[in-house]
Specification:
By secondary structure, this protein is α+β, with helices and mostly antiparallel strands. It has 2 domains: about 45 residues; about 80 residues, Immunoglobulin-like (Sandwich). The protein is about 20% helix and about 25% strand. It has a 4-stranded antiparallel β-sheet with strand order 1-2-7-6, with no helix packed on it. A 3-stranded antiparallel β-sheet has the order 3-4-5, with no helix packed on it. The longest helix is centred in the first third of the chain and has 22 residues.
């Protein structure tokens, strides 16, 4: 048996006696590289702007889409909704952002920053009959689908003579 065969793992008696490792400092260098990469990625993500969109629920039936948007802290006049190219564009600009700068928060999870959000629908939506209301911080929109009109079937029996 050769010396090299006994040092296949770091726990072998010869590797401890001669302080030999099959891979040398490769594993230590890899660990150091991995820790530095992890640190760099955390620093990079901390530098990114924190984007917070409001929570949205979108449900679908055969006839309509129902969109619910959680907009606590926004007044109805601060919210703008548009239907453009079969997409619902939601915008909210809070007029009270500047007054919150003098507050000292111990915890702040409710965002009242301005935002823009676009929701795309897979089926064509009728622009004429959209119903929206704002109640208890929830904006609820009902958008009817543009269903293909079915041609009434007038079946006529044809006799063969």
């Amino acid at each position: 048996m050769m010396k090299k065969d006994l040092t296949l793992y770091t726990g072998s008696p010869l590797s401890r006696l001669f302080k030999l490792d099959r891979f040398g400092d490769f594993t230590a260098e890899f660990d150091k590289l991995w820790k530095n990469w992890d640190l760099d990625m955390r620093m990079f993500s901390d530098m990114q702007p924190k984007v917070s969109f409001p929570k949205v629920n979108v449900t679908e039936t055969d006839e309509e889409y129902v969109v619910e948007i959680a907009l606590a802290g926004f007044k109805t006049e601060d919210i703008s909704l548009e239907l453009k190219d079969n997409c619902l564009c939601v915008k909210a600009d809070s007029a009270e952002e500047s007054s919150e700068e003098d507050r000292k928060y111990l915890m702040k999870e409710i965002s009242s920053r301005s935002f823009r959000r676009v929701l795309n629908f897979p089926t064509k939506v009728l622009p004429d009959n959209i119903k929206c209301d704002h109640d208890n911080g929830i904006v609820r929109c009902v958008l009817l689908k543009d269903l293909p009109k079915q041609i009434e079937s007038n079946t006529i029996k044809i006799d063969i003579k």
